[in-house]
Design brief:
With about 100 residues, the chain is mostly helical. The protein folds into two domains: about 1-30, no CATH class; about 35-105, no CATH class. The chain contains five helices and two strands, in the order E-E-H-H-H-H-H. It has helices at about 20-30, 45-60, 65-75, 75-80, 90-105, and strands at about 5-10, 15-20. A two-stranded antiparallel ribbon has the order 1-2. A hairpin with a 2-residue loop joins strand 1 (about 5-10) and strand 2. The longest helix is centred in the middle third of the chain and has 19 residues, at about 45-60. The N and C termini lie far apart (about 50 Å).
């Protein structure tokens, strides 16, 4: 299957969407939804599972190592509490470098 790029023009803003990546993301997440939620003891547990799967998959899509990402979130829970936007899967490496640099200085 060849990659198809769709360009969407929204109020004069063009954004290219790589359909191949989008489809891959959708397909890899689908088996984790639906009936698998029944395997959790409560719906709150299913929500937690969905949250972690979303973080893991987003980390993978951004070229990160999900295990490393989740481990760093645990190690830097205090920093995460005060600035969660800085610890997203696509920004945590910069935040980690900043924390390490400030610890060395």
């Amino acid at each position: 299957m060849s990659d198809v790029v769709i360009v969407i023009d929204v109020l004069s803003f063009s954004a290219a969407v790589d359909v191949a990546v989008s489809r891959g993301g959708i397909h890899s997440a689908l088996p984790l939804k639906g009936d698998s939620a029944a395997s959790y003891a409560a719906s709150a547990g299913a929500g937690v599972g969905d949250l972690f799967m979303s973080l893991i998959h987003t980390c993978e899509l951004n070229g990160g190592n999900p295990f490393d990402y989740l481990s760093e979130l645990q190690r830097h829970a205090e920093e995460l509490k005060y600035a969660p936007a800085e610890w997203m899967p696509w920004t945590y490496r910069q935040s980690l470098a900043r924390v390490v640099a400030s610890a060395v200085a």
